[in-house]
Design a protein that fits this description.
about 100 residues; HTH-type_reg/antitoxin; 6 helices; single chain; mainly alpha; about 65% helix
């Protein structure tokens, strides 16, 4: 039996719910890389770096590593960022 990370599964399901009305017809080759996508997602949330880090459950240093392109956000982290972008109230709930 294949192990599936419950957080990844939860975020995948939430992403499907949030984006159910949007066409997701991008080919795998057309997907933006994690670095460029992160920059867009981070800026679109409108959160300060410390608030963004708290909502993501990571350190400010980690967000700085992503922004400097030294580290790449994981697939799960990118999914959470997409959800925060699509529904700004999620980030407020995550910071509580």
């Amino acid at each position: 039996m294949e192990y599936k990370d419950p957080m990844y599964e939860l975020l995948s399901n939430l992403e499907q719910i949030v984006f159910k009305d949007k066409q997701q017809t991008m080919a795998l080759n057309d997907k933006p890389n994690a670095f460029s996508e992160f920059e867009q997602l981070r800026k679109s949330t409108g959160l300060k770096i410390d608030d963004f880090a708290r909502a993501m459950g990571v350190s400010v240093a980690m967000v700085q590593e992503w922004e400097s392109k030294r580290l790449r956000p994981s697939t799960t982290e990118l999914k959470l960022m997409r959800l925060m972008q699509a529904n700004p109230t999620i980030s407020k709930q995550l910071m509580e």
